[in-house]
Design brief:
By secondary structure, the chain is an alpha/beta fold. Helix content is 29%, strand content 23%. The protein has 11 helices and 20 strands. β8 and β9 form a beta hairpin. α8 runs parallel beside α9 and α10 runs antiparallel to α11. The chain is globular. Bound molecules: adenosine monophosphate and zinc ion. The site of adenosine monophosphate has 19 residues, from β7 and β12.
Length: 441
């Protein structure tokens, strides 16, 4: 049997007892840095928390949680430490209501993140010398630059292809001999259709050998479809802006859950209602603490993503625990075209329009393998009288106002009063009809 290889052998196969010791050390220095920020400084001084409050990992559970609203309230920089002046980059989370959550990074933070992404890519089977095409939006979204620096750190020839323009993507794949692609899973299906239209066989006519897919929820069945279609393995990548972005948890070649890098993140899974830890192996909300970030430490962050720890050791030899794929959210956020959207954002836009009535429904559908958002809105009765001439303008304006708010363009359907189902009790605002990817061959 060939010897197993790792990117950061020292950390990836570290004995659990040593790893836990490292976590306590890093947690204490994280608390020290956090005390230097306005947000944690005030919070912890009120509660009498200092570095010595943390003697063991269990002591972390006494600290308060951090939620997305805390980041928004601290906009633009209330959660940065005194090292903020060293910052060389910032990222924002996508499609948030009001102020976005901003994360600042200094050189240490970016190096640490780049290394985690390189480790993740290596763990899925990418190697120095691979040609790595990163098919996702660059800019404030972390998937672009996060994978760019990770690919470079790995030593791959990294192609910052950006999102969309499938024909051009295929040209790049062919001309530069791309071997590894990162993309969102729904996009890969679209890309496959274009391969077919162009009469190019992705397996025979290119050097492609590995996919990394993430940034949006997907099922095991979706992964299998992608793998069957292309004849190429696809590995799950999980991350979120608040915890850098990609490189938080990643599948190894065993494809049996995502190793979460416990030297960089302390992981808890809690019941979203009681906030108490769930029993090992049960589904709950993932709570993460940064252990290696200098400008913006975040402690006990409620990700709202639901998952569970997978039991047993992994055949790859890595000692970092594995998470199951994300099975849902503990809030009502949904993701469409890579944008994180809360129904309240759309409601906020609608309720400012005088013609809008009281009922609306957001439907998520898959059309031609692309996820779309349909916003069905009841208007006041007078909008449907002969004297009202502005229906078209109103529809146009709603499409654009919603797009400006959530960054994804919806289809807007205007309806007379009482067209939508009335709900008794809690209103259902979002209906998700998205079938898992429809495959057209
Ligand atoms: P953002 O901060 O905009 O990159 O969004 C992060 C969110 O995207 C996470 O909190 C998850 O809800 C979702 N997400 C990222 N990666 C995955 C994945 N592999 N599977 C399911 N959801 C994911
Ligand atoms: Zn493994």
């Amino acid at each position: 049997m060939s010897k197993k290889v790792y990117w950061n052998e020292e950390f990836e196969i570290m004995e659990r007892s040593k790893l836990e010791k490292l976590q306590v050390e890093r947690l204490r220095s994280t608390i020290k840095t956090a005390l230097d920020t306005q947000f944690y400084g005030e919070l912890y001084s009120k509660k009498g928390i200092n570095v010595d409050s943390i003697q063991s990992i269990d002591d972390l559970r006494k600290l308060p949680f951090t939620v997305k609203q805390d980041l928004r309230d601290s906009y633009p920089d209330g959660m940065t430490s005194t090292k903020k002046g060293e910052s060389i980059r910032l990222h924002c989370s996508s499609g948030t209501t009001g102020q976005p959550a901003v994360v600042y990074h200094n050189k240490h933070d970016l190096d640490s993140w780049g290394n985690l992404v390189a480790r993740s890519l290596f763990c899925a089977g990418a190697r120095p010398g691979d040609v790595f095409q990163n098919i996702c939006g660059y800019g404030l979204f972390t998937g672009g630059l996060g994978f760019q620096y990770g690919g470079e750190t790995l030593g791959a020839l990294t192609i910052p292809a950006g999102a969309g323009n499938s024909k051009r993507q295929i040209k790049l794949i062919q001309d530069f001999g791309t071997t590894v692609i990162h993309a969102i899973p729904s996009y890969l299906i679209r890309l496959y259709d274009v391969f077919k239209q162009e009469g190019i066989d992705p397996l025979k006519d290119t050097n492609l050998r590995l996919f990394v897919i993430g940034a949006e929820p997907h099922t095991e069945e979706q992964r299998k479809k992608i793998e069957e279609l292309f004849g190429i393995k696809a590995y799950n990548s999980y991350g979120l802006t608040e915890m850098n972005g990609p490189g938080v948890a990643f599948e190894c070649e065993e494809q049996n859950g995502l190793h979460i890098w416990e030297d960089a993140y302390f992981v808890e899974i809690v019941d979203p209602d009681t906030l108490e830890p769930v029993a090992d192996g049960e589904i709950g909300e993932l709570v993460l603490t940064t252990l290696d970030r200098e400008v913006m430490p975040i402690i006990r962050y409620r990700t709202r993503d639901l998952t569970r720890f997978l039991p047993g050791e992994c055949g790859c030899g890595r000692t970092h625990r594995r998470l199951d794929r994300i099975t849902g959210r503990s809030d009502d956020m949904f993701i469409i075209k890579g944008c994180n959207i809360f129904p309240m954002q759309i409601e906020g836009v609608l309720m400012k329009i005088p013609e809008v009535g009281t009922n609306y429904l957001i439907e998520l559908v898959t059309e031609n393998d692309i996820d779309e958002m349909h916003v069905k809105v009841e208007l006041q009765a007078h909008c449907f009288s002969d004297s009202y001439k502005d229906l078209e303008n109103l529809q146009y304006s709603l499409i654009h106002k919603i797009r400006d708010e959530v960054l994804a363009k919806p289809k807007v359907v205007l309806l007379p009063p009482n067209s939508l189902p009335q709900q008794e009790g809690k209103a259902i605002r979002v209906v998700d009809h998205r079938r898992q990817l429809r495959i057209t061959n």
